[in-house]
Structure formats: structure tokens, C-alpha cells
Amino acid sequence: MEETAHRFTGAPTWKQSYWAEMLVECPKCAHAALITADVMASDFRYLANSTLACSHCAHTERTAEAVAYRVSIHRNCDTCGKKVAKVIPRSKQKVETLAVACPHCHVTRTYQPRNEAYRLTYQGSGPGVDPIFNLPLWLRAAVKGQLLWAYNRSHLNDIKRYVASQLRERNIAGHNTMVERLPQFIKAAKNREAVLKAIEKIEYR
Question: Do 88 and 160 belong to one domain?
Fold first, then answer.
């Protein structure tokens, strides 16, 4: 029984398996907010109807609404034949027509610009941010100068069980499962106690 208690035999999950629900820091009030994502089981893609909701301040965002357009014109002037260029880097809506004056002959023409859609996100980067809105994850703590984080409590519990185990069995070939991709400082036996203390601290958030 003791050997079984210290044996990790968890399911071979990928980190994308935890994207359906993620706890993040609300960009408005800095309390915990929940991201719910429509994750396809076949390839874990998160779709354009993901939602951010904070129960503390009632702030909500939807990725379907966080879209902007890069509007551009690059062509030759109809009058003098020289190049005409115009770029609007961020437009909230598509632009169907755009009047542009040629910088050479100064004749103004109306053109149909190119609209390139892109999704607006926050400026977070690196480990410890969610993959949809780029917001800091709520479940995170420093461990010996490194950052320990989890997408949700289920993810955190799986990491905890792996760290606490004395015997870690691999249930799948390859090196892309969640536990295989954990940072080395989490896997290191010498850090077990420090990591478990950090996880215990995170659990009370």
C-alpha cells in the first residue's frame, strides 16, 4: 500500500487538456477571474467564443469581440503612376473604402483597402500567463527564483501528485505530456519539499 501511495500513475494528459477552464488575474480588479474556452478534444484548439468572467467585479470579455483590423493600401496612383501607401494599424471595424491623396501629384482617389483581422490580447508573455488572453494565471508562486504555475486546480493537483510521488511511471511514449514538459526545477527531487510547500500556498488562493 505504501508503494502504491507514492507511485504516480496519472493519465497521460497534455497541457492543452486544462485549457477548457483557466483561473487568471482579472485585468480590472486583480481578483480571480475564470476563462472558459471551447476546446476541441481532437486537437485542443481554442475557438473564437472563449470568455473571460470575473465574479468579483462582473467584468467580462469575449474573444469574438476582441478583434481589430490592419487596414492598408499599397498600389500605384491612377493619375501619375507612382506608389501610394496608407496603413491604419488598428481599426475596430473593417474599412470598405478609403480616400487617399497621392503624395506625388496630390490627387485624391478612393480605393478598396486590404483588411487583415487579428485578435487583441493583453501584453503578458512568458510562463505563467494563459494562452488566450495573455493574462497572469491566478495559481502561481515563486520557488527558489523560479515560477510555479497551474491553469486550474485540477492541473495543480496533478502537478502535486506527480511531485509527491516517489516512483513516476510513464503511461505513453514520447515526451509531450504535461508531466514530461514540466520544468526541471519541479521534477528535481531536491526541490520536492519546497515545491509542495508552494503548491500548498497556492491551494489557499
Answer: no
Q: What is the pLDDT of residue 42?
A: 47
pTM score, whole prediction: 0.77
Quick one: pLDDT at residue 165?
A: 84
18-43 pLDDT, tens digit per residue, is 999 999 999 999 999 999 987 764 44
Closest CA to 80 of 61, 56, 104, 98: 104
CA separation for the pair 95, 113 (Å, rounded):
7
Domain range for 93? 67-119
Task: Clarify whether residues 72 and 135 are in a common domain.
Answer: no
Q: What are the cell numbers at 88?
A: 491604419
d(CA 122, CA 66): 11
Verify that 40 and 86 share a domain, yes or no.
no
What is the per-residue pLDDT across 67-82, written as a single tens digit (0 to 9) for each? 899 999 999 999 999 9
Dihedral angle, C-alpha 56, 58, 61, 65, nearest 10 °: 180
Q: How many structural domains is the chain composed of?
A: 2
136 shares a domain with 186: yes
On the CB side of 61, how many CA atoms lie within 13 Å of its CA?
19
Q: ∠ CA 147-151-152 to the nearest 5 degrees? A: 120
